[in-house]
Amino acid sequence: MSGIEYFAMRMFRVLSKLRLTGLLRLVAETVPFMKYFKGFEKNQAVRGIFGGETEGVLRNLKVGFTWFGYMGVDDRNGHLMVNKRYLSSGSKEDIYLDVIHELCHIKQHMEGRDLFDPRYDYVDRPTEIEAYRYAVREAKRIGLTAEKIRQYLKTDWMSTEVLDRLIRNIDVNLEECQ
Questions:
Q1: What is the share, in percent, of the chain residues with pLDDT greater than 90?
Q2: What is the pLDDT of residues 7-21, one digit of tens each?
Q3: pLDDT confidence tier of residue 67, bands split at 50, 70 and 90
Q4: Max CA pair span of the chain
Q5: Domain residues of the chain, as ranges?
Q6: Distance CA 22, CA 63 (A)
Q7: Please, is 111 exposed, middle or buried when counting C-beta atoms within 10 Å of its C-beta (0-12, 13-18, 19+)?
Q8: Where are the alpha helices (DSSP H) in 142-159?
């Protein structure tokens, strides 16, 4: 994510907390999740998140296409926000794992959990740790190597030390990967 995109994402979150997002038109269009992301209702990892409610949740879920960031959840309405440029330029594995990660956040939002709890650093936030656990479990299941999983977990702003802390927090053994 570029510095401008990161700033825009942070600004969106601040405006969201202040209930001022109506000042910005950040979502270009909204479509049903199942129209754009086909087959996820049958996905084992997604069923692990939502259980028997999977089809109903995904049928009601909306996707908003944005001009910044990669992928996230709008904490006002629980919609998935996706950057169209990321969908066309990102790796299929990263996009897939990001969808799994964000679907976990959607479940957390449905449970009333604070997705952006400011008491925690990003890599220490319980909602992020849980979402990354789902994504890494799925990364291991589809056969990603330990190095590829580390690359997936590392964001543009994350130092090696912070990445290592995230990996410790999600408590996964990457050594057992291929």
A1: 67
A2: 555 555 555 555 544
A3: confident
A4: 48
A5: 3-176
A6: 18
A7: exposed
A8: 146-153
